[in-house]
């Protein structure tokens, strides 16, 4: 049986990647949606030419009240929502899916959006649908990477992780989203207690395998709420940074200006930094990575540390957040059905399923190192 999947925002930065994978996926019939008719048609033509498959489309506002009817008329069975930024966005798309009896996942990495999706849990269960938020680098992939090695630990005390992107700029909406908390308090965990840091502050240099030294700073992600209960960790932190050190410093300076009240609205500055980034991206090396450091007690009762790094070459970094949804769609097309309810998307896919979805070993590689030399 064919799974009819609609990608909301199918011609956007991440939606294009998801669509490119799904249009050639066995057992999937792809439908892409967006509000710009010309961009939508260009993407449909591109996908059809690339795959030789028939990709359908719907032009309209998925946030609007008529979306429920569209899902029914087009016989959609699964929606992948890629239309960020999710910071401050309503749950209109997810609610339409519940009302239409359609399963849903999104690529949000907004902490409030992902953790707040549980407000729809009762309605989703009553409708018998899965509403999964955060089907992206965080928390889906980050949790899968830890889950894969969880058996090596008797106890996990500390999880420090982050992302260093390449210099290639994402879409403007992504930049607007990640700068939304510049200079604002972020709740992390230190020694089991809530500890506040400021967004895009506390610049840190980290040496990363294959990538040299990168500049990282505090960023807010859903993992800060999810990992304490999931793994029992007492210390949680997350940092991120751009491929060029100049980008990290620019974000830091904007955060300082926001904190001091010199800048009140981050959106005009996000647009300026995005334009500058497009000019400077030619100076980048095309490398990006997600890293996870886990510290705790091993199964033998001795201290144990784990370092995981997923590295992308040749500006393939955007595949990392995009392909969690691709992996989930592939699993569903093969017969998997998540439990009904609205929740963060963790524990739904494995690392092996994720890597199979990307299927690009020349450009994406996973390295795992333990302090005891095993594994």
Automatic annotation (TrEMBL):
InterPro entries: NAD(P)-bd_dom_sf (IPR036291), Sacchrp_dh_NADP-bd (IPR005097). Signal peptide: none annotated. It comes from the Bacteria. Residues 5-131 form the Saccharopine dehydrogenase NADP binding domain. SUPFAM superfamilies: NAD(P)-binding Rossmann-fold domains (SSF51735). PANTHER family: SACCHAROPINE DEHYDROGENASE (PTHR43781:SF1). This is Saccharopine dehydrogenase. It comes from Pseudomonas fluorescens. The lineage of its organism: Bacteria, Pseudomonadati, Pseudomonadota, Gammaproteobacteria, Pseudomonadales.
